[in-house]
Design goal:
Blueprint lengths: L6 H21 L6 H29 L10 H34 L15 H10 L3 H17 L2 H9 L33 H12 L17 E6 L6 H9 L2 H6 L2 E8 L4 H8 L1 H4 L3 H5 L1 H12 L4 E8 L5 H8 L10 E6 L2 H10 L4 E6 L5 H12 L9 H14 L3 H12 L4 H9 L9 H13 L3 H9 L11 H11 L12 H14 L4 E2 L5 E2 L2 H10 L4 E5 L12 E6 L4 H4 L8 E6 L6 H9 L7 E6 L17 E6 L17 E6 L5 H12 L11 E6 L2 E3 L18 E3 L19 E6 L7 H5 L9 E7 L13 H4 L1 H4 L2 H12 L15 H36 L8 E5 L8 H4 L8 E5 L18 E5 L6 E2 L16 E5 L6 E2 L14 E7 L8 E2 L4 E7 L7 E2 L2 H5 L10 E5 L23 E5 L20 E5 L20 E5 L6 H4 L7 E7 L7 H4 L7 E7 L16 E5 L6 E3 L12 E5 L6 E3 L9 E5 L6 E2 L8 E2 L2 E2 L5 E9 L13 E10 ...
Parallel strand pairs: 1-4, 1-5, 2-3, 3-4, 8-9, 9-10, 10-11, 11-12, 12-13, 13-14, 16-17, 17-18, 18-19, 19-20, 20-21, 21-23, 22-24, 23-25, 25-27, 26-28, 27-29, 29-30, 30-31, 31-32, 32-33, 33-34, 34-35, 35-37, 36-38, 37-39, 38-40, 39-43, 43-44, 44-45, 45-46, 46-47, 47-48, 48-49, 49-50
Antiparallel strand pairs: 6-7, 14-15, 41-42
């Protein structure tokens, strides 16, 4: 087998070259030198004659058993020469095609010959004409000569390859499996096979420090324990570790869990950095300083029980590095564990030697037993089919399983391969393949993986090898990878036939997924397993190359596909440039002022380049040399900068894909500016362009922004097109775009002039479109009536003075029957004249609008889509009748139809005829008054496949008619949603198979019944419904739930969720309440607050309830609620009771983890709430009479509380004894105006020198205090070790106290803080005075600070910034008031990476920015500041030039 060149590629290229050359000779015969022409023709003739031998050599090599490494060196060299010659020919064919496209666009006279060939005098013109002045002729002669020279040597190798098929090449090669391979802690497999014992043993060892696999107690139970898991590659070490690492009990047992993938390079600083990456991310000093890293790890795990997983460890020699790694880990709490996974058995010995004082365990993860391996292989081999249907294949599979040696990875890969060909003969061939014994070591795993590769279709080999240029664990986007394959020439057009390149690429991709070479992730991307990535790298080492770090000198000249990931930009200038390089991916993370120069230097000379992908934060201009890369098919540009797009694309006629990610563009208008730049560069001449995207975060600009985009006849994707009544943007631009795929949204159809223009779009020829949307943008009729003056907008067509006159004339009590002398002003005459003119004008406007509406009907009738369309949406249509083509079933393959905002449509098309229709949405159709029988289409089965039916915003809908024979109505319906249909009182019976019902603002007076036919009713079996979710909101006419389908609760065996709220007239519940719903888990019910009916608590709720919300009349149900022992979630809202149940009653709720008490206005105490021992989340809102919350009142009942939220408790003064809830992680207190203190108050609480002296026993994820104006101190924080995110807003007394403390004894930046043990990661305040408050003023490790009112920034605040300069990474400042300059101390914030300033209208100057800063964002500032910060010329530019991302907006 040869990975260098495929015979069919060479044959197609050479054949096409010969044909193109002869056509060129004929066309240019009067211009070419006949000597050169004859020489080239003779060379082409010899090439055709000798190619039969070439073909035989290539065929035998391609089908032979040897790889490139095993091949004769001379033959290997010849193959590379031949590939070079073939690709030179391919480049020349590209040049010929480029010439043809140029002639087609500009005409022959428009072709610009390079200056070196351009005649400068009449004499030179004559000479050049005689000797051949066309540069293509010179290139053709060179290519023919190159090919002729290589082919001439074919005979020397023909005899050599005859015996290749019978040679046995078994040279031992050491497998390099220690390449970089990153793994993560998230589970990648939903099920593991045959590891029950290992899981149990390791789990028990983790949860019990005294556990020993032999049953003995460990002698040193107070030390850190280590386990080394050893197993060959692919045996499932990582999968097993992920299963255990994510175990709930394991997570709960350890206070710190860390996962580090070590891979081939064992570096103590790198491993330690990964362990504390969150704490020191972005800090270069930390990344390289072993001492700082060891100290950071020590602080992180001191007195903490931790679990550390070291996956994929290879190093068994570097004793010093191991000691440096283990040293800080010895500070962990007793019971801490380290799990090491490796393929190298000697690593276990190294770990044991280093951890002499620790308990060491050894786990040898062997291959799966045969009985366990069979189910794993079957899972992948018979995926998607019934296993029992393939008895013969099962027997063969059992024999294959024995040969695979129980390696899970191989079972997955080979199983995927077998699944694609469920053929007995194929499986037997796989069984007979020479699979070497796996018991000998890792080398055999590679051989088996290579066997799977060899069994792939040959056409997939190059595509798989191509993936090696991406880093391990790279998340592939399917479309991106396919388009890169296309552009790189891995899916040649000559092989696709009538299919699209994309379709063939998708076939290749899906085959690689089916054979488990690519794995789908949970983010809808794909990845390659580490072992397979290593295989790809090994197979493509002379073809694909990846440069990481700063080593770029060893790039072979044979490389065709190259990826570069570097930090040092200067490397680009000296990097080798392979002559026939086709793919270049460059990713860099640092900034440099000469970046554009470095990129131009690298790209210059890469004339064969097809794919260019550039990623980096600081690319501030396009490399202009791109304009010379005429073979480019794919350009992807990803930067944080907003850069101008130069004129460098307009001659790249081969371009297929342009993706530009300009992340600094914050809105669509910015992107449109960039789009206009491209439009100005004759962008529409790129007739080969298939995909275009201009992106910024969540904003996308379509190619339809370019005038004349209709010339891009190869375009495959056009998501949005907004029609305009101007040249280049009319609907007729779609005329030639018959290759469009996917979905298309056409907006602005009101700008289409007439049906002729609509017909010219030729939508019926767009046979590849899957989804089509029509949108009318300008008719804003949402709040207007569909007829009369309201519809036409009278207020816009009548002058204000005339309206005033009309109002006066209509309101004055003047009797014109009397003889009133008004002088020359006859009011009656004037008024009557005005009324006549107004009526005439109104009638004229109505006629014009009716004409426009009829025109829209004609236009929509002419926009008939292709009959194969699957999804259709019509939005804003103003005609009265549906389009003819939707009525007569001419697009009968539809699976989804949406009619929305069609304000005048009065009748619905016969959608029931659409036999494949699964989704129907009717939204905002205000003229529809009834659903007539016409909609069903007169079929035997009405809507036979419909699964989802939604009707919304139909204010006039009153009746829903059903044909008498309605037994077959909606037989497959799963979801019914009715919303904003206030006049609809009844709906047809619903099928038993429905899953979800959602009624919101519907005029139903009763619930519908189930529809059962006579056969079902006469059946002796009990009928059952599939309904699982019922939601009824705001149905004002619904008085009873005792009628309809809820009265037959025996059917409702699957109903698990019920929500009933906003039914103001509800007076009756189902008989027996909801007790018959034995599967009910989640119930939300709101009782009418004003009704005189009192609902009884007897027999109301089933014991199965787990989540319950009750709004109003809560006091009637409290006693019964406390018997629902399965409750885990309880929310109670609005009650007039003055007392909550006592502790004895609340203790019955042993599973309750969430409790919310809202608007209990009369309670003064929380009663038995304190006794809820399992409660994690407590929320108290609007309890106005509650004065005190004392957690000591319930003993230690709330010891598991994690989240506490108190809002709008107007009389609350004290929140005390928080030591009881020391488990608390989030505290949120808002709008409690009388709250004066938050106290910890342990009984052992004492003070030394006025300071609390107690152990810090609390850690907070969130700490939020807002609108508590009487709060005087943050004493609670003295008992808190750390807070992840804290915020303080509008606490006036706290601000005053802060100023008092600062004037008394504020600690300056130059002295040592008294107590800096509180750690806060992120702090947000609305008043900088809080920074002076104890203990906040003593913080030294803040990473993120936001000050929302900086008008009062002072020197003390600057001191606070300085004492946190070593840790602060992000700083957000708002409302700077009169500040004209930021403090000079900013230069000293050495860790700062992001500075965001908002509302700084007086700001005119900036200090020198720190070298660490990566992002500078200033918005709503003085325009003078923007001018001073102009790139390269601004006065302040030297102070900010080093920052990669700068965005300054006045």
């Amino acid at each position: 087998m040869a990975e260098i060149v495929a015979g069919w590629v060479a044959e197609v290229t050479i054949t096409k070259l010969v044909q193109t050359a002869y056509n060129f000779f004929i066309k240019q015969s009067d211009r070419l030198d006949w000597i050169n022409q004859r020489s080239a023709a003779e060379g082409l003739g010899r090439l055709q004659t000798r190619y039969e031998q070439v073909h035989e050599v290539l065929a035998r090599i391609e089908n032979g058993p040897v790889s490139m490494d095993e091949m004769d060196p001379g033959l290997r060299s010849w193959l590379w020469q031949f590939r070079d010659a073939v690709e030179a020919a391919d480049n020349l064919l590209d040049d010929f095609e480029h010439r043809r496209l140029q002639e087609q666009l500009h005409g022959e006279e428009g072709i610009k010959v390079p200056s070196v060939y351009r005649p400068t005098s009449k004499f030179i013109k004559i000479v050049r004409s005689a000797w051949g002045s066309d540069p293509l002729m010179d290139k053709l002669a060179q290519v023919v000569k190159q090919l002729d020279g290589v082919v001439a040597n074919t005979g020397d190798f023909l005899i050599l390859v005859y015996n290749l098929e019978y040679r046995i090449v078994r040279d031992e090669r050491r497998l390099e499996m220690a390449r970089s391979r990153e793994t993560g802690s998230l589970q990648t497999e939903s099920k593991i096979f045959g590891r029950e014992k290992e899981v149990k043993d390791i789990r028990s060892w983790l949860l019990d420090s005294d556990f020993d696999f032999t049953g003995n107690l460990g002698a040193r139970s107070n030390s850190i324990s280590v386990m080394t898991m050893v197993g060959i590659g692919g045996v499932g070490k990582t999968t097993l570790l992920q299963e255990i690492y994510n175990d709930t009990k394991v997570k709960g047992f350890f206070s710190k869990t860390m996962w580090v993938c070590v891979s081939s390079t064992f570096s103590a600083p790198k491993i330690l950095y990964k362990m504390v990456e969150d704490e020191c991310k972005g800090n270069i000093i930390f990344k390289e300083n072993l001492d700082l890293l060891q100290e950071a790890v020590r602080k992180k795990i001191t007195s903490q029980r931790f679990l550390l997983v070291l996956d994929d460890v290879w190093d068994d020699e570097n004793h010093e590095a191991w000691n440096n790694l283990i040293a800080p880990l010895r500070n962990g709490k007793s019971g801490s564990k380290i799990l090491v996974a490796t393929r190298v058995g000697s690593v276990a010995i190294m770990v044991q030697n280093v951890m002499k004082d620790s308990i060491h365990k050894y786990c040898h993860l062997k291959s799966l037993e045969y009985e366990d391996f069979i189910p794993l292989l079957n899972r992948y081999a018979f995926a998607g089919v019934n296993l029992n249907d393939y008895r013969d294949l099962q027997l063969v599979g059992q024999q294959i399983a024995k040969k695979l040696g129980g390696i899970p990875l191989l079972g997955k890969i080979v199983g995927g391969q077998l699944n694609s060909f469920l053929d007995y003969d194929y499986w037997v061939r796989v069984l007979d393949s020479d699979v070497m014994d796996l018991q000998e070591g890792d080398k055999k795993v590679f051989e088996v993986l290579k066997l799977s590769y060899q069994n792939l279709p040959t056409k997939l080999h190059a595509c798989f090898r191509y993936c090696s240029i991406f880093p391990e664990d790279y998340d592939f986007e399917k479309d991106e990878l396919i388009r890169m394959w296309m552009a790189a020439g891995l899916i040649p057009e000559s092989q696709v036939g009538r299919n699209r390149l994309e379709d063939v690429g998708e076939e290749y991709f899906n085959l690689l997924v089916a054979k488990s070479f690519l794995n789908e992730t949970q983010w809808e991307t794909y990845s390659i397993h580490d072992s397979l990535h290593n295989l790809a790298c090994s197979l493509s080492k002379d073809e694909c190359w990846s440069v990481q770090g700063n080593d770029s000198k060893n790039v072979p000249q044979t490389i065709r596909h190259l990826s570069v990931r570097i930090d040092d930009i200067s490397i680009l200038k000296t990097m080798p440039r392979p002559r026939y390089l086709r793919t270049l991916v460059v990713q860099f993370n640092s900034s440099a002022q000469d970046l554009a120069f470095a990129l131009n230097t690298l790209l210059r000379g890469l004339s064969s380049l097809r794919v260019l992908k550039l990623c980096g934060p600081s690319i501030d201009e396009f490399p202009m040399v791109i304009a010379d890369l005429l073979h480019l098919r794919y350009i992807s540009f990803d930067t944080d900068c907003d850069i101008s797009i130069p004129n460098c694309f307009n001659k790249l006629y081969h371009l297929q894909v342009i993706h530009l990610y300009l992340r600094a563009c914050k809105n669509e208008s910015d992107l449109k500016v960039r789009s206009q730049e491209m439009a100005n560069h004759a962008f529409s001449k790129l007739t080969r362009l298939r995909y275009f995207g201009l992106f910024s975060e969540d904003i996308t600009c379509s190619v339809s922004l370019f005038a004349g985009f209709g010339k891009l006849t190869s375009l495959q994707k056009l998501e949005k097109f907004n029609v305009r009544d101007e040249d280049g943007y009319k609907l007729s631009e779609l005329k030639e775009l018959d290759n469009l795929h996917y979905s298309l949204e056409i907006g602005g159809i009101e700008n289409v002039r007439n049906y002729t223009e609509a017909t010219e779009a030729f939508l019926k020829n767009k046979r590849f479109l899957h989804s089509l949307s029509f949108i009318w943008n300008s008719y804003n009729l949402d709040s207007e009536e569909t007829t009369g003056l309201g519809f036409i907008g009278l207020e816009e067509t009548t002058e204000p003075e005339e309206l005033d006159l009309e109002e006066k004339a209509g309101s004055d009590n003047v009797s014109f029957e009397e003889n009133v002398d008004l002088g020359d002003f006859d009011l009656d005459q004037k008024t009557n004249s005005y009324d006549f003119d107004l009526q005439e004008e109104t009638e004229h406007i109505e006629l014009e609008q009716e004409e426009d509406f009829r025109k829209d009907e004609e236009i929509l009738n002419c926009l008939k889509p292709n009959s194969q369309l699957k999804e259709l949406s019509i939005n804003g249509y103003v005609g009265k009748t549906p389009p003819i083509w939707l009525i007569n079933e001419s697009i009968g393959d539809l699976i989804s139809v949406t009619l929305q905002g069609c304000h005048r449509i009065t009748e619905l098309p016969p959608l029931g005829k659409l036999r494949f229709l699964k989704t129907l949405h009717l939204i905002n159709l205000p003229a529809i008054t009834e659903i007539r029988c016409d909609i069903y289409g007169g079929q035997a089965n009405f809507f036979p496949m419909l699964e989802e039916f939604k009707m919304s915003d139909m204010p006039k809908l009153k009746e829903w008619f059903v044909i008498n024979q309605a037994d077959n109505l909606f037989p497959k319906l799963k979801s019914l949603c009715l919303s904003s249909c206030p006049l609809l009182e009844q709906i047809p019976p619903i099928p038993l198979g429905i899953n979800e019902i959602d009624f919101n603002d519907v005029g139903l007076s009763s619930l519908p019944h189930y529809r059962t036919n006579q056969k079902e009713e006469s059946s002796s079996s009990v009928l059952s419904s599939s309904l699982s979710s019922l939601i009824i909101w705001n149905c004002p006419n619904l008085a009873s739930l005792a009628e309809g389908f809820l009265q037959t609760q025996k059917y409702l065996v699957s109903l698990s969720k019920v929500e009933i709220r906003g039914c103001e007239r509800l007076i009756s519940l189902p008989n027996g309440g909801f007790t018959g719903l034995m599967s009910l888990k989640d119930l939300f019910i709101e009782f009418p607050p004003t009704t005189s009916t009192t609902f009884s608590s007897e027999e109301m709720f089933p014991i199965s309830i787990e989540s319950l919300c009750i709004v109003d009349q809560v006091e009637n149900f409290l006693p019964k609620l406390l018997c629902l022992t399965n409750l885990s979630f309880l929310e109670l809202e609005r009650s007039e009771t003055a007392f909550l149940p006592m502790e004895e009653e609340f203790r019955k709720l042993t599973k309750l983890s969430y409790l919310a008490i809202y608007q209990f206005r009369k309670i003064k105490s929380l009663g038995g709430v304190y006794s809820l021992s399992c409660l994690n989340d407590l929320r108290i809102h609007g309890c106005h009479m509650l004065e005190m919350i004392d957690f000591e009142m319930g003993g230690k009942g709330l010891s598991k509380l994690l989240f506490l939220e108190i809002q709008d408790c107007k009389e609350l003064i004290f929140l005390q004894n928080l030591y009881v809830v020391s488990s608390l992680k989030d505290l949120n207190i808002e709008r409690c105006p009388k709250l004066s203190s938050l106290t910890f108050e342990q009984k052992s609480f004492i003070r030394e020198n006025g300071r609390p002296n107690t152990q810090k026993s609390m850690t907070f994820h969130g700490f939020n205090i807002r609108d508590c104006r009487e709060l005087e101190s943050l004493e609670l924080l003295h008992y808190v070790a750390s807070v992840d995110r804290a915020s303080i807003f509008r606490c006036q007394k706290l601000a005053n106290e802060a100023l008092i403390q600062s004037s008394r004894d504020f600690t300056t930046a130059n002295s040592t803080p008294r107590d800096n043990s509180l750690l806060v990661n992120a702090l947000t305040v609305d008043n900088p005075s809080y920074l002076l408050l104890e203990p906040i003023r003593e913080l030294t490790s803040i990473k993120e600070l936001m000050i929302q009112d900086c008008s009062r920034l002072c020197a003390l605040s600057e001191s606070f910034l300085l004492q946190n300069r070593g840790s602060m990474r992000e700083l957000y400042l708002q409302e700077l008031g009169d500040l004209e300059s930021l403090p000079e101390v900013f230069e000293e914030l050495c860790s700062l990476t992001t500075l965001d300033v908002q509302e700084a209208m007086k700001l005119k100057s900036l200090p020198q920015m720190p070298a660490s800063l990566k992002i500078l964002r200033i918005e709503f500032c003085n325009p003078e500041l923007q001018e001073k910060c102009q790139r390269r010329i601004g006065e302040l530019w030297p102070k900010i030039a080093h920052i990669p991302s700068i965005n300054i907006i006045p």
